[in-house]
Amino acid sequence: MNKRNVATVLWFLAGWVSAGGVFAMSGLPSDLGAVVGAVVAGLVRWDPAGWIWARPVATRRIRPINEVAAELDRSNGAGAGEPERIAR
């Protein structure tokens, strides 16, 4: 279980208990606290502003070998069937 999952569960429980207590003291049904807890947990999980969780690093794209070979041919000036010359 990673940190985001644990934080989501804990924020759900904290939101549920605290909102349920406020609702119970104000005369509203305390069961509405579960809704508030779910909204808070969803916001913590989703993190739309990017304040809590780090953004994922851009992943590398795997290019087809034909695309790479064509790019090398263009940059080296080699013909379509000529191998690349490596100077040693």
Structure commentary:
- By secondary structure, this protein is mainly alpha-helical.
- The protein contains three helices and no strands.
- It is 56% helix and 0% strand.
- Helix 1 runs antiparallel to helix 2.
- The chain is rod-shaped.
- The relative contact order is 0.11.
At a glance:
The chain is an all-alpha fold.
Key features of this structure:
88 residues, mainly alpha, 3 helices, 0% strand
Summarize the topology.
Blueprint: H1 3-25, H2 33-46, H3 65-76
Helix pairs in contact: 1-2
SSE order: HHH
Fraction of residues in helix: 55-70%
Strand segment tally: 0
Derived structural class: mainly alpha
Global geometry: rod-shaped
Q: How many individual helices?
A: 3
Strand content: under 5%
**Unreliable stretches, pLDDT < 50, 5 or more residues?**
none
Nearest-angstrom radius of gyration? Answer: 28 Å
Distance between the termini: 52 Å
* Major pleated sheet: none
The pLDDT mean sits at 84
